[in-house]
Amino acid sequence: MQNLQTYTTDVLVVGGGMAGCFAAIAARENDCDVILVDKGYVSSSGQTPFAGTLLVFDPEKDDRQETINYVRKTGDYVVNVDWLNITMDRSMECYLQMKSYGVPFAKGADGQDRRMKEDGARAVFPDNLKFPQILRKKVLETGATILDRIMVVELIMQDDEVCGVVGITVSDAYPVVIKAKKVILCTGASAFKPPSWPVSNLTGDGDMMAYRVGASITGKEFVDTHGTSSTNPYYMGRNPLKGHMGPPPERPPHGDRPPMGHPPNGDKPPMGHPPHGDRPPHGKPPRPRFTNALGEEVNIAGHLNLGIEFEIHKGNGPMVLPKGGRGPIAGGELVSCASSGMSTHKAEGILPMGLDCSTEIQNLYAAGDSLGTMTTGAAYATIGLAHMGSAVTGKIAGENASQTAKTSAHKQVADDTITTLFDKIYAPLNRAGGFSPRWVINLLQNLTMPYFNLIIKEETRLKSILSQVRYLKTDVVPKIKASDAHELRLALETANMVSNAEIKICASLERCESRGTHFREDYPFRDEQNFSTWISCKQIDGEMQISKHPIPSDWAWQEGEPRFVTFEEV
Ligand SMILES: Cc1cc2nc3c(=O)[nH]c(=O)nc-3n(C[C@H](O)[C@H](O)[C@H](O)COP(=O)(O)OP(=O)(O)OC[C@H]3O[C@@H](n4cnc5c(N)ncnc54)[C@H](O)[C@@H]3O)c2cc1C
């Protein structure tokens, strides 16, 4: 094979966000050889560089039961309390670890790290412009190897065990083989390349690699609810390039637009800074306006807790929907999710086996947003929990994978196995003709992103998009043509996004109730009897099998317990 790059390591970490960095450091500190590979650049890719808060639970100052009750209530009583406890228990250690690396945290008036404590939140504020680079540096200092800009595409399986991965270099599509005793997937969340939230390279690659080799995938029916309004469907106030909040640039009316081409020399603005008076005023730019069907302005400050206003806003609950759910849709309402496709942080992902971040697949671990721990259940409960959850699970996965790697040997991989995997990977490049991956992505987005498919769900519509997504999977994706390395990566990501969409729709169809961020127009109320469960999807002999996993009764809703989200008949 031309230009083949081959590596061998004890522990391979795929994805270099918070989870991947913590995993790599933990495994390396346990004296294992470690490679950390990322399809972007470790410290600038994934969601990690955007997170501004970290949950830190202080057992001496905080009330554990109060926090658990708050998260259970907000997560609508499908929270995995074991994972929540683990995250709380190990959060202080991860925070102190970051401090020891020199990560700066925002200070309060007393000169100490500012720690917010309200409702269920106990969060500190790391400087997110600096900490990803500090983590990268620390990973390298431990002696781990970082490989940037390599997209991992498939897990190598031998005798039903993972023994490495194959991938391609992003710039040239050169083949890469990494043999490893243990693989930890830290590939982040799964979205459909939305234009308005910085998750466009998080295309569910890890989830789908694991799914293809028989792992169960959970939590896909719960929606991340950062909204976008119908007046600006692609925008939710965050400029993905600059990372600040503010309205999108106004397009001037036609008559006012400057003529095409370069302005004549005399019209060019003078060099240097504009005089003070001409600069835009300081301070936060205004947030985009969200209104409901009655034209009232709606406060979306609580959007993470499902402050979604669809048809009727009565101001008496975070979410009030008429039975049956239908009503007028007017300009300015939420029409989609900024993070389209992504599920509630820590809900979606590979189903963990036990509490050591192992999965059903031998030698395969997962952590961070690609591990479906259900730490915050059906709705995102409190700030900082997602990011700290990634640090904690990354650390646990690194510790356990390295511990087991010490007592295991590398498996021999048959040449045929590798050749077959690369034949499949390069098929879009070798095809004489076919569909453009961009066109297929557009089709997928048009099917999955509108609010009436993504947020307000109903059986007929779900079945209709399912049949089209399945057609994409069986008849369109296999005919995608890639003209260059960039398109090959897009083609491979598209295949993953389409499979992810299929699972998302099937999980949504299976949950015949409304709970947290999952709303079914045809089942507008909770059904504790049948759906105090987690749902997972698994592929057996090419067919999807859906399972329900009952929640331990003391974690489920008990008669008389408060509700965060109301589904009322009006
Ligand atoms: C704007 C924004 C603000 C946020 N604010 C907060 C906050 O204040 N508090 C909080 O707790 N959480 C916040 N979050 C969520 C939080 O950032 C994430 O939950 C967390 O960073 C996830 O870390 P991770 O390591 O699991 O995944 P990520 O940081 O997403 O890293 C995944 C990595 O995997 C790589 N990858 C993916 N596929 C492949 C592949 N096939 N091959 C190789 N590499 C691959 C990606 O390039 C990426 O670098 C925010 C998210 C966003 C987008």
Q: Can you give a write-up of this model?
A:
The longest helix has 26 residues, at 485-510. This protein has 570 residues and is of the alpha/beta class. A hairpin with a 2-residue loop joins strand 7 (150-158) and strand 8. The chain has two domains: 17-222 and 340-419, FAD/NAD(P)-binding domain; 424-547, Up-down Bundle (Methane Monooxygenase Hydroxylase, Chain G, domain 1), CATH 1.20.58. It contains twelve helices and 18 strands. The radius of gyration is 24 Å and the shape is globular. The strands form five sheets. Strands 1, 2, 6, 7, 8, 9 and 14 form a seven-stranded mixed sheet that branches. Residues 237-252, 257-288 and 299-332 have low confidence and may be disordered. Flavin-adenine dinucleotide (FAD) is lined by residues 14-20, 37-40, 45-48, 50-53, 151-152, 186-188, 197-199, 201-202, 205-206, 345, 368-369, 383-387, 390.
What are the main properties of this structure?
570 residues; 29% helix; binds flavin-adenine dinucleotide; FAD/NAD(P)-binding domain; alpha/beta
How would you briefly describe this protein structure?
With 570 residues, the chain is of the alpha/beta class.
SSE pattern: EHEEHHEEHEEEEHEEEEEHHHHEHHEHEE
Assign the CATH topology of the largest domain. Answer: FAD/NAD(P)-binding domain
- Tally of individual helices: 12
* Fraction in helix: 25-40%
Summarize the biggest pleated sheet.
Answer: 7 strands, mixed
Ligands bound here?
flavin-adenine dinucleotide
Q: How would you state the average pLDDT, rounded?
A: 84
- Report the radius of gyration as a whole number of Å: 24 Å
Shape: globular
What is the SS-derived class? alpha/beta
Cα distance spanning the termini: 66 Å
CATH class of the largest domain: Alpha Beta
CATH homologous superfamily designation of the largest domain:
FAD/NAD(P)-binding domain
Quaternary structure state of the chains depicted:
single chain
- Which consecutive residue ranges, at least 5 long each, have pLDDT under 50? 237-252, 257-288, 299-332
Please name the CATH architecture of the largest domain: 3-Layer(bba) Sandwich
Beta percentage is: 15-25%
Topology, number of strands = 18
Number of domains: 2
